[in-house]
Amino acid sequence: MRFSTKLAALAAGTALALTGAAQAQTIGVSIPAATHGWAGGLNWHAEQAQQRLQEQYPDLNIVLVTADGPAQQANDLEDLVSIHDIDALVVLPFESEPLTDPVRQVKDSGVFVTVVDRGLSQEGIEDVYVAGNNPELGRVSGEYFLTRLGDGDNIVILRGIPTVIDDERFNAFIDTIEGSGINVLDDAHANWNRDDGFEVMQDFLSRFPDIDGVWAQDDDIAIGVMEAVRQAGREDEMFIVGGAGMKEVIAMIMEGSELIPVNVLYPPAMIATAMDVTVAHFMSNGPVTGEYILGAPLITQDNAEQYYFPDSPF
Amino acid sequence: MTEQAHEGVRPARRRFAIDFHTMGPLLALIALCIFGFLLNPAFVSEGNVTNLLTRSAFIGIIAVGATFVITAGGIDLSVGSMAAVISGLMIIAMNASLETFGIGVQTVVIGCAASLLLGLLAGLLNGVMITKGRIEAFIVTLGTMGIYRSLVTYFANGGTLSLDFEVRGVYRPIYYDSVLGVPVPVLVFAVISVIGWVLLNRTAFGRYCMAIGSNEVVARYSAIKVDRVRTLTYVIQGICVSVATIIYVPRLGSASSSTGVLWELEAIAAVIIGGTMLKGGYGRIGGTVVGAIMLTTIGNILNLTDVISNYLNGAVQGVIIIAAVWLQRGNLAGLSLFRGRKTGA
C-alpha cells in the first residue's frame, strides 16, 4: 500500500504535536449503519479509531452517528452541527447526490469536512477526500484473470447493487480483459449479498456447462458462489475472485485455497484513516488537505496475513 | 353481512370447464414455465428444477403460515427479521453447546429446538400484543420487524454470525441432501403444506380463521374465541418461520443483518397471488404454494437469460405478479365470454 508510509509519517507528526493541543475539539463522524458485512467492518473500525483517538487526545471528543438511509443521514448532519457544535465532520455519504447539499451546508457553517469513499456530486466542498479505489479494484481483478486465463476461456460475473461503485468496478474489469479472448458468458446483480450470490450462481451453473472463472467482486457474494459451486461438485473446474478483504476469505487465502486463490482489498478500515487525517488537521503542524486514494492491492497467500483482522466482524 | 369475499373468490359458476379463481395461479405458473423453457431449455434440466423448488421452500413455508394470519384478517410484517434473528440465535446456541455436546447430532438438535421455541415465543408475542394489547397488527409487527432486525445486527456485531465449520458438516445434509431424489427442503415444504391444508380446510380452527377474517363481530357472537384463534395464527406463523430457518441455516451456515430482507413482502405476495384475500375471510394453501414457487421462478428465469437488462428485473417481477393476480381474479373468463355477467357484484 503506497499510502501506509504517508500514514506513518502522519502518525509521527501527530505525536509530536500532542503538547500543542490546547483547545477542545469535537469531531462528528457520520456513516451508514451496519446493514451488510462491509458496513459492519466500517462501524467496527470507526469505533476502534474513536476509542484510540480519544485516549490519545484527552481534549478530543468524537461523536459517532450511524444512519439507515440518506434522509436520516441528512438529519444526522444537521444535529451534529446544531447540537454537538462540531469543529470537523467525517462523512461517508450513503449516496452521493442526496447528501451533497447537506454536506455543503455543514461546510458553510465553518466546519472542516472530510468525505470518505463516496465522492460528492460537486467538487470543491470537502477539505479532505479519503477513498478506496473502485476502478483499481476492477483493474487489479482483471489483471489477475489475465494471468490465469486466456483465449477461449469462459467466465461469469456477479455484480453488486446497481450503483456508481458497481459500474466503476465492472467497467474497469471489462476494459482490462478486453482483447484477451476471455469470454464473459453473462453478468447479473447479486447485490453484495450471500443468498443472492448463491442463487445467481446456481442458475449460472445450470445454464453454462463450462465456466473457468468467477468474478464475484465482493466477498459476501463470493461466499454464496462458493457454496453453489460446491453443491454442483464443480469446484475443480473454476476459481472465484471476490473483493474487499473479509476475514473468512483472507483466512482461506492464507491456507492456500484453490477455489478462492486471491482477493482484492477494499478496506472498511479507510474510515479510521479518514479520522486520523482529520484529527491531524487539528493536532499536527503538517498540512493534510487533499485527496487520499488507498490502493487496491492483490492479496495472495504470501501477503494475506497483513490484511487479516480476526477481531473485526468483517 | 355476507359481502365478505364474494366478489373475488367464490368459484360460483360451476359449469365452466376451467375455474379461473382456483386454476389462475397454476395457469400463470405453467405459462411462466413454458416461457422459461423457450428462453433457455436449461430451465427444465433436473438440476435447475430441484434448485428452483428447494429455493422456494423458505418463502413457501413462511407463506403457509402467512396464509393463516391473513385469512384471519391479520398481517405479519416481522417474518423476515424474525427469520434473521432466529437464524442468528440458532447459530449462537449451536456454537455455545459445542463444548458440552461436541460435534454431533445433539448440537444440531439443540439448535433446531432453540429455533422452534424462539419462533413459538416470537409468534405468541406478536399475537398477544395484537389481541390483548389491542394494537393493530400492522403496527405491532412493524415494530417487531425493526426490533428483530436490530437484534440480529447487534448479536452479529454488525457483521456475520457463522456456524462452527465442523458442526456445519453435520448439519449440511438438511439442505443439500435428497430422499428418493427429492431434496429435503422440498419434502419439508410439502409436509408443511399438507398439514397447513388440512388445518385450514378440514378443522374447526380453519373455519374459525375464515369466520374471523370475514367478520370479527359475527364470529364473536357465534361464540368463537376470537382472541385465542387469532393469537394462534401468529403462533403458527412463528413456527413456520422456525421451520424455514432450520432448513435455511445449513445452506450458507451464516446469518447477518442482510438475511431475510423483504421476505415478509415475498411471503405476503405469494399468499395473495395464490388467491387468499388480503382483507381476510378466505384462504387457499394450495394457491400459496403455487404463488411461492412462481415468485422464485421469475427470479430464476431472469438469471437464465440475458435478453432482459439486469436493471429491469424488478419491473419484470412487478408485471408478472400483477398479471398473475389479474388472472386469479377471473378476469380472463370475464374478458372472453362472460363479460356481461360480471357487473352484478
**Residue-averaged pLDDT of chain A:** 87
Instruction: Supply the number of helical segments of chain A.
Output: 10
Range of strand content of chain A? 15-25%
Structural Rg of chain A: 21 Å
Q: Helix proportion of residues of chain B, in percent?
A: 55-70%
- CATH homologous superfamily label of the largest domain in chain A: Response regulator
Ranges of chain A with pLDDT <50 over ≥5 residues?
12-22
Verbal overview:
The complex is a heterodimer of chains A (314) and B (345). By secondary structure, chain A is α/β, with parallel strands linked by helices. In chain A, 45% of the residues lie in helices and 18% in strands. Chain A contains ten helices and twelve strands. Chain A has helices at residues 3-17, 37-56, 70-82, 96-108, 134-148, 164-177, 194-207, 219-232, 247-254, 270-283, and strands at residues 25-32, 60-67, 88-91, 112-116, 128-131, 154-159, 183-189, 213-215, 239-241, 263-264, 290-293, 298-299. In chain A, helix 1 packs parallel to helix 10. Chain A is elongated and about 65 Å long. The relative contact order of chain A is 0.16. Residues 12-22 of chain A have low confidence and may be disordered. Chain B has 345 residues and is an all-alpha fold. Chain B has one domain: Orthogonal Bundle (ABC transporter involved in vitamin B12 uptake, BtuC), CATH 1.10.3470. Chain B is 70% helix and 3% strand. Chain B is built from 15 helices and four strands. Chain B has helices at 20-39, 46-71, 79-101, 105-131, 137-155, 165-171, 173-176, 184-201, 204-214, 216-221, 226-252, 263-273, 285-304, 313-328, 331-336, and strands at 160-162, 178-179, 182-183, 254-256. Chain B has a two-stranded antiparallel ribbon with strand order 1-4. Chain B has a two-stranded antiparallel sheet with strand order 2-3. In chain B, strand 2 (178-179) and strand 3 (182-183) form a beta hairpin. In chain B, helix 3 (79-101) runs parallel beside helix 5. The chains are: A alpha/beta (314), B mainly alpha (345).
